[in-house]
Design goal:
Largest sheet of chain A: 7 strands, mixed
Structural class of chain A: alpha/beta
Oligomer: homodimer
Strand order of the largest sheet of chain A: 9-14-13-15-16-18-17
Shape of chain A: globular
Distance between the termini of chain A: 62 Å
CATH class of the largest domain in chain A: Alpha Beta
CATH architecture of the largest domain in chain A: 3-Layer(aba) Sandwich
Largest interface: A-B, 98 and 98 residues
Strand content of chain A: 15-25%
Chain lengths: ~525, ~525
């Protein structure tokens, strides 16, 4: 078989069966090999950031990697900002980056660039295939690196001649590795700290946010009378009625300082030490209170779920000792459409089993608050702060969970970094409702100007203004085959969201916020 | 003053007076400093690839750098693919990349990444400001590096605390450096080779494509009975009636081999050795004929125009010995709208002084052929093969030359990498007509499948299909405030182009190609 086929077979037999692709000339043999590997599903995207963001969404929903197929250094470049988000989410992703034929690299042809140098900025593993006979081994190594644990970005550079060359090497198949068993000494150290009666916070994130892990975290915190928080931006959070109730650390550093004040022990499970998202003049960047001891329950490569289970048991927590969320959706809003009434509508209407892809920036705060008691759902955050993830991540989530409704919360500013995802929604019939929260400005940056006492800036403020021209998101959606409607009152947004959530397939609601 | 103001003052006093920006929190002091430096014009873009592509367009038209303003690693990541094109065009560009406050980097906040690592992949110069007192020096060094010669990418990383800190250091002002005088020995070696009577080709590119340089290249070639070619993808080519006639090397390697067959001396002036854009199984990647000696007339840092002038003089070329292009536009087409009739319409209607931003991929070949005898114009190519340049480059060109009509030739595939440029066209009232050549597929990749004898690929071919859904470029343009029309016949495209070329401001013509 050709190297190209060996690559696809290795991926597919290792469970990597979806490939978000934007191929070019150097990838034509890989594209042609799809006929020989029908279990590999290619998903065309019109821009590479859509491919990498979709792979992130796929990974968050399934726990398994998807592949991207990218065209040399420029294709990888365009994928990097969402790979940054995926890296911060510990999402497993396998990037396949086509390159010039190995013997052609020295020619410095126009598309030649430092692919490995680009890849290293986001990848835990970077490899270059040495030839067709090396293809399956290299692809297997990439999958293994991506699967971790923890999940990571692996980037495989595939010279065109490795794809078009023939090989008789056997095709590898890679199985996921189990995480390392938790370290009993760490668990005991944490138990002792929590049992001391001193003020303690259990901070969870990553793999600790799901299933038994989050339940055991709540049981352990309750048994020890410790406070439980999640990180501010979680890759996936299980929320809503019947799920474990977890408060979230706030965004701004002074708020985090207040939330953690007086804490003697800060226990990390799947989370890192909290730090300010940005530094501000005169505000701290590190947010752990003075005199607070930080204890790590499990390292990233360890089984944090097992560690939390052991901790809850060691603390004698009762089986049903987790704090569960009652079903208490807000009432439907009426009247003026603003972030608060929008959030209320979302909280009231969020369908059971929904997946929320959250890139709402300022509106995320009321949206999170209003959905605490909604029907059960999964909430996927922008983990790395790199805008342009919302719709791409929703694409991957929708294809990974075709039976579930996916809802994208988009700010009008952030929506414009990767609007091409709309086209893939239409092409794939993805069941994604995109709610574009249109305030006609980079509102978060206005907030930042206020925080920095720079509100006098006249010309600078014009750079935050998205009203001239206003983007018409209904027209934008229709231009790429997605039906859209506009809502300008709370009543209209309720009607629009009800319809969008009840119908299968993609749609856009332009939510025109007042003020 | 604050470091932020020192930065903007240094740029402005060095002639860098336009900044294509997509700022975030870490750049708020830079944004606020705009009021203190009114000579700096900020141009908001909704995605960073638009900013970097516009800076390239600005540089190609003016010969001077524009700045970009980007938000940390992810902002730079999104700008990289068009910076790759700018690098290949030897366009001077100064990237200003905001970073976390220096003391906050070690916190590994969510947006932290290896900015310098990213920057080095495209930049000739990368620097990080050491503090407010270092700001003007560092900015001056960046401008100096960008200006070359030759033009290059310089990336300055600006920690937030360097921007918000105060400084009393004087503001630097950087003047362009003159290129090094040509090397008389090289000129004499080339003269001797050309005068030998052996078959010779003079291959020009870069700075040799303009003004006296291209005229002297033609004079020298004619005097020596050598053949004159330009590189396949030129940063700027002066074309049309009354300009020097220069044939262009073809795209596919076998065509280049044919064009250069029998050449004994290949003389490079502002050009590199021709190589295949992509390697193909069984085809050569290096395209210089066996036994052909390659002579370089001037190194990139040398004055290639002076070298060509000296060469023409040494060969005794008459003053008026250049081959000029007669005015011979094609007649207006009628009937079926296909690449050939579209090209004919373009050739007939191209307005005097137009700037063409060419990202037409397959349609560029007939478009180039049909415009040889059109009114005089400048033609800007996609130099690095990284798609998404066409509209961004047109934005920069239009702002750099407000009195001239700018025309973007876009394929429907390539248009979708950076459609956000449309919004900046509307916001700035840029005089850009975007002609979207809609064939509903990645046609170039179909050609590549044919060349590689992979046309049986069934699933792979679906990845080249842009027809389900079709992008509606009229709706897309309107969604971002740009008027658009659709043309489906040669007559309609003539009417649409006539109107678009005669009116000021942005517009889009969706050119629906048959077949």
């Amino acid at each position: 078989m050709l190297g190209a086929e060996a690559l696809l077979r290795t991926l597919a037999s290792s469970g990597v069966t979806t490939c978000f692709a934007n191929p070019g000339t150097s990838e034509m043999h890989l594209v042609a090999a799809l006929d020989a590997v029908p279990s590999m599903r290619p998903v065309l995207t019109l821009a590479e950031g859509v491919a990498s963001g979709a792979a992130d969404g796929w990974a968050r929903v399934t726990g398994r990697p998807a592949a991207t197929l990218l065209h040399l250094g420029p294709g990888l470049s365009n994928a990097l900002s969402n790979l940054h988000n995926a890296k911060r989410a510990q999402s497993p992703v396998v990037n396949i980056v086509g390159d010039h034929a190995s013997y052609h690299r020295a020619s410095d042809a126009p598309l030649t660039s430092d692919i490995a140098g680009l890849a290293f900025t986001v990848s835990a593993w970077v490899g270059c295939v040495a030839g067709a006979d090396d293809m399956s081994r290299a692809a297997g190594a990439a999958v293994r690196a991506a699967m971790g644990p923890p999940g990571a970005i692996a980037t495989l550079i595939v010279p065109a001649d490795a794809a078009w060359g023939a090989t008789t090497q056997p095709v590898e198949s890679v199985a996921p590795s189990a995480p390392r068993a938790p370290n009993a000494h760490r668990v005991e150290a944490v138990r002792r700290a929590l049992a001391s009666g001193a003020s303690a916070v259990l901070l969870i994130g990553g793999a600790a946010m799901r299933g038994s892990a989050v339940r055991d975290a709540s049981r352990a915190a309750n048994a020890a009378k410790a406070r439980l928080f999640s990180t501010t931006f979680t890759a996936v959070a299980e929320r809503g009625a019947g799920r474990v109730l977890v408060n979230r650390l706030p965004y701004f550093p002074e708020q985090v300082v207040e939330a953690l004040a007086g804490t003697r022990y800060l226990v990390l499970a799947g989370a890192s030490v909290p730090v300010a998202f940005f530094a501000y003049p005169g505000l701290p960047g590190a947010l752990v209170p003075e005199g607070c001891e930080v204890l790590t329950l499990a390292e990233p490569e360890e089984d944090v779920a097992a560690a939390l289970g052991a901790l809850a048991a060691a603390l004698g927590a009762p089986e049903n000792g987790a704090t569960m969320t009652p079903h208490a959706p807000p009432p439907l809003p009426t009247g003026r459409l603003d972030p608060s009434s929008f959030a209320q509508a979302l909280g009231a209407l969020l369908p059971e089993g929904a997946i929320v892809s959250d890139e709402a920036v300022t509106t995320r705060f009321p949206a999170l608050a209003a959905t605490v008691g909604s029907a059960s759902h999964d909430w996927l955050c922008l983990t790395g702060g790199s805008l342009g993830l919302g719709m791409p991540m929703a694409l991957g989530a929708a294809l990974a969970a075709p039976g579930r409704p996916v809802i994208t919360l988009e700010a009008d500013g952030s929506a414009m970094y990767a609007p091409q995802a709309l086209w893939s929604f239409a092409r794939e019939g993805a069941n994604v409702t995109t709610l574009v929260l249109k305030n006609r400005r980079y509102r978060i940056l206005e907030v930042e100007l206020e925080r920095l006492q720079l509100t006098d800036a006249r010309r600078g403020r014009e750079l935050l203004n998205l009203s001239a021209p206003e983007v018409d998101f209904v027209a934008l959606a229709r231009s790429m085959g997605v039906p859209g409607v506009r809502a300008t009152t709370a009543e209209e947004v309720v009607v629009a969201m009800r319809r969008a959530f009840s119908e299968n397939g993609p749609s856009v609601v332009e939510v025109v916020l007042e003020g």
